[in-house]
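ok so for the tutorial part 2 we go from a plain amino acid sequence to predicted structure tokens. step 1 is just haveing the sequence, like this:
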Amino acid sequence: MGYSNAYSAYQKTNINTASQGRLVVLLYEGIIKQLTTAGTYIENDGKIKPENIEKYGICIQKAQAIITELQVSLDMEKGGDIARNLMSLYVFFNEELLAANINHNKEKLDFVLRMVKDLADSWRKIANSVANAPAATVQNALNIQG
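step 2 — the prediction. this is what the tokens look like for a chain of 146 residues:
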């Protein structure tokens, strides 16, 4: 088994055995990876080389797809204000990324990236603190009504 296959198997196992909190972290990490890569295609002068425009757009679209997946996974009934606030953030992120994609706007891209990194850090703390806790404790930590 080559390195590539072993890494792919590891990733699949990591996803299949992850807690819900860890899955959210993995999704945020996917957004971070895509937005970081997209940022590398913007030159210092704010332009994107013609051969990189499609790659840039694909990265933004992948990040938006992950954000949309996070949106549809929200439980608006049990999540209360947290779910509503996250929904608003996700809608905002997708709007900003749409503008960043159309206008090649590095400031909007960087802003969303910073916000997603902050959210990922918060979810990491939650996932680590409740990883082995009973379901009721997890619900309390996430402020979800049982």
